[in-house]
Structure to design on (465 residues):
């Protein structure tokens, strides 16, 4: 049974209702309202930014996940409708809370942007409270402001189309209540059902720490095999520093040999991935190596990923090609694979890719938390931008000397800062990061969590009308 909660906007003065009809309507409405309060916690209310863009709100008895009740929001065919179910619950400042909700959409083209949940921290009077989370230190050291809304992340979906939103948040010290919001916005002709909503105290999350490494080295061998072998002691050095991942530079079997790209190309997987696979297995770490791949008559500039078991996991084919590679007969790739590793989700890009925002953004959109970047040279400001704008950790391995003030071999954090960087040839830089670390931005709050909610539609996401 679906019990309408907001249908009064459909009535206009041109309808003439007799007193008896009005009485019957009011009695039925009272019955429906009582029934609705038995279906869902009566604390849930609904709101819209403006009445003229309010969607329709209703309860659905047993219309939720696994037969639970559901809170429903439905939009007609008009553009721009926006509304939310909400309720306010008490919290203790400093306590961690786990938010869980299940969402099922119908006709929503981009659920990440149109069917979202939000948490707003408040004091006893419903006003904003100060933030006490980690602040972007590179922007405004000592900056103080109000705690901004939180955005629970989308997780997996079940076989019936119910998607889970699940995240843990720490209540700011001055917070005494939280406003839980369930939204539908900007999705004409659609609806969403919200079910099994909970917000309970929990233990603080365990940090997801990983040690990321990169090699700053120019091989000087007389063959591809000699070039490969010169990286062995550097990989061992990374292992001594307990690295989980080590990134090697671009086209390392081509560098310094004076041959053409095609002459240095090999199958991938092939001789180089087998060699580095033995080292990865010996040292129990992941290796990303920049290579040239031959696939039939085609040659690609690739980054190859080898796992700690020594097996080839996958490759990324460089998408953005500079003039020299185009003239040398290299073919651009077209895919943006992201790989599951034991520490998190890893994407890769190669050199010139970093000059353009699209590659790193596509990898981030697919869930990459770390991007490994074999790179001959690039503007370091662009490295900072790629890490910062996508809230990923970027690990670069370059052939550029530090004194050139061009590209660095470095580990870049979410603020776009190099938290570890090489100072001379033969350096192996290692840095430890927490993949679950979230920082507060001035006037924005947790930008990492906001990215999927606020990011503009890609061309693939724009619905046809």
């Amino acid at each position: 049974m679906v019990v309408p909660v907001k249908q009064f906007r459909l009535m206009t003065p041109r309808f003439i209702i007799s007193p008896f009809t009005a009485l019957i309507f009011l009695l039925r409405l009272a019955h429906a309202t009582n029934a609705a309060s038995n279906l869902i916690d009566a604390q849930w209310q609904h709101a819209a930014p403006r009445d003229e863009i309010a969607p329709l709100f209703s309860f659905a008895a047993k219309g939720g996940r696994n037969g639970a009740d559901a809170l429903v929001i439905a939009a007609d065919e008009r553009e721009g409708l926006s509304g939310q179910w909400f309720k306010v619950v008490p919290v203790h400042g400093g306590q961690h809370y786990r938010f869980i909700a299940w969402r099922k959409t119908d006709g929503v083209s981009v659920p990440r942007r149109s069917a979202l949940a939000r948490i707003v921290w408040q004091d006893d009077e419903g006003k904003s409270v100060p933030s006490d989370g980690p602040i972007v230190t590179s922007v405004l050291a000592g900056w103080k402001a109000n705690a901004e809304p939180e955005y629970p992340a989308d997780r997996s979906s079940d076989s019936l189309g119910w998607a889970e939103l699940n995240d843990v948040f720490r209540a700011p010290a001055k917070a005494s209540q939280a406003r839980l919001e369930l939204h539908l916005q900007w999705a004409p002709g659609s609806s969403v059902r919200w079910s099994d909503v909970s917000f309970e105290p929990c233990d603080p999350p365990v940090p997801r720490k990983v040690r990321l490494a990169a090699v700053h080295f120019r091989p000087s061998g007389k063959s591809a095999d000699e070039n490969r072998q010169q990286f062995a002691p550097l990989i061992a050095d990374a292992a001594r520093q307990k690295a989980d991942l080590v990134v090697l530079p671009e086209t390392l079997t081509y560098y310094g040999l004076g041959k053409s790209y095609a002459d240095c190309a090999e199958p991938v997987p092939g001789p180089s991935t087998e060699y580095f696979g033995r080292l990865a297995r010996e040292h129990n770490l992941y290796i990303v190596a920049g290579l040239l791949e031959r696939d039939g008559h085609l040659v690609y500039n690739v980054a190859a990923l080898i796992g700690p078991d020594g097996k080839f996991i996958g490759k990324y084919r460089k998408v953005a090609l500079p003039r020299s590679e185009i003239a040398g007969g290299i073919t651009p790739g077209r895919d943006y694979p992201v790989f599951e590793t034991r520490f998190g989700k890893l994407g890769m890009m190669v050199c010139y890719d970093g000059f353009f925002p699209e590659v790193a953004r596509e990898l981030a959109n697919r869930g990459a938390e770390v991007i490994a970047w074999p790179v001959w040279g690039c503007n370091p400001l662009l490295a900072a931008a790629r890490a910062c704008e996508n809230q990923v950790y970027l690990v670069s391995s370059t052939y550029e000397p530090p004194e050139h003030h061009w590209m660095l071999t470095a580990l870049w954090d979410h603020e776009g800062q190099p938290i570890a960087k090489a100072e001379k040839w033969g350096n192996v830089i290692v840095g430890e990061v927490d993949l679950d670390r979230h920082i507060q931005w001035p006037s924005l709050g947790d930008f990492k969590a906001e990215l999927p909610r606020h990011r503009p539609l890609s061309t693939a996401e724009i619905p046809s009308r």
Remarks:
- The first helix runs from residue 19 to 39.
